[in-house]
């Protein structure tokens, strides 16, 4: 069966619409493919645009203008409300139309469309130079594939028109976006790229109500150890301090909103004791001016300690800045000033001790570098800790000081649940100080924090009093202290741990090693973890010196509670 398409010279709008409804399938197919451009090279000012899926593999109608159809067309047409002719008011030509299809059953598989019947369409007014409509023969009837929407699209997705069964369809943008009308060059596909078909975007407001955690605390406690005796502790600590948020009313003052909210730290601490006392106030800002990656700390302190040969009191302050280069590497710089008062001398016959008696003004600048890869600062099992510090002191005494500390931790074994760790650790401290270093700034060794098996400061250089009444521990300007320790679990819950260790090293009056003054003290110890006392375990160590100086003083047993030695 052959069909011809004639284009009358004039028709009214209603006649065109009735003709479209009557022969809708063929009208839609031809409009999508050719845009009402005159076939066989006839010029036209009309264009058609359609929302559709990717092009099919069927030939274009213009490639077979006269070939008769050998198959029967399927008798399927579109409803009248599925086709709408929308006038393009933005163009200069009043006879330009845009055809768009909006099926209301999108979301279900689309019906198959057969070869369309004969139809014709023309604008309300023919273009200039139009001499008359030629006759055309309908292309062969080809079965069209069935189209279904992509997976994941439901009924709420935007509707798109049925695809063209004859090749490359017209192109548009997604609903809600400006229409893109590509230019046609007669027979080829559109020259413009298609706009992406985007799913409908939906936004919603997300409201999160947050409440600050408890950041302030007041602590009362006490401690006892073999080096400092019995001490008490009162601490006021606020970790969300704001130094600029002054109270604006009594309600702010008593409700806890004053001086809070900036993430700063404020700490007051009082540690009274029978041999040792310390009182400190500290303010720290982790981000200077609220945004710089530089921390700042300001502190003031009052320190009082009774040593074997004198009493020492320090009153001063410190300002420091820190910068974290990487999560493991940090640098810091600071300045400090203090007054050191030395009183209650055990002897007035030692020149080094007499030179420090009374008040001493001491100021210093300090640079520090720290690299810390430990898996825990309390009881590390892997990683290392490295610290290098340089200090330049001035005031009543002028000298330079270099200090280096290195700790290395090795994990030997552990259970499947990562408990029961057996670790081996090694630590070393190396320090040099200048010739004018005062006696109260010298290095000392002895006690649980430096060298076990000796009394507090009992492994340090000392001088004998000329009258033979005893010795005075003067310390030295060079130190090298080392510890090798093996820790292992004693119980399944790791509440009790055993340690085997050896402390060795020396403190000298100058930078040299003297075999007669070199100290070595092996020993065994016990660690007891009590949760109600905090993360720091109780430590009980027994050590016996096997190498020591003539003036050293032994202490076999030492005990303490501390995070690190």
Tell me the Rg in angstroms: 46 Å
Distance between the termini: 103 Å
Note poorly predicted spans. 1-11, 31-103, 112-125, 147-177, 183-188
On the 0-100 scale, what is the average pLDDT?
75
Shape: globular
In total, the number of strands is 24
Instruction: Report the structural category.
Output: mainly beta
* Main beta sheet strand tally, sense and closure: 16 strands, antiparallel
- The H-and-E topology, N to C, reads as EHHEEEEEHEEEEEHEEEEEEEEEEEEE
Major sheet: arrangement of strands? 5-6-7-8-9-10-11-12-13-14-15-19-20-21-22-24
Can you give the helix content as a percent range?
Answer: under 10%
Short description:
With 565 residues, the protein is mainly beta.
Describe the structure.
This protein is mainly beta. 5% of the residues lie in helices and 37% in strands. The longest helix is centred in the first third of the chain and has 11 residues.
List the helices and strands and how they pair.
Blueprint: E1 4-5, H1 13-22, H2 24-34, E2 83-87, E3 97-101, E4 136-137, E5 216-225, E6 229-241, H3 250-255, E7 264-271, E8 276-285, E9 294-306, E10 311-324, E11 329-343, H4 351-354, E12 358-372, E13 383-395, E14 399-413, E15 422-433, E16 453-454, E17 462-464, E18 471-473, E19 478-489, E20 496-508, E21 519-528, E22 538-543, E23 554-555, E24 557-561
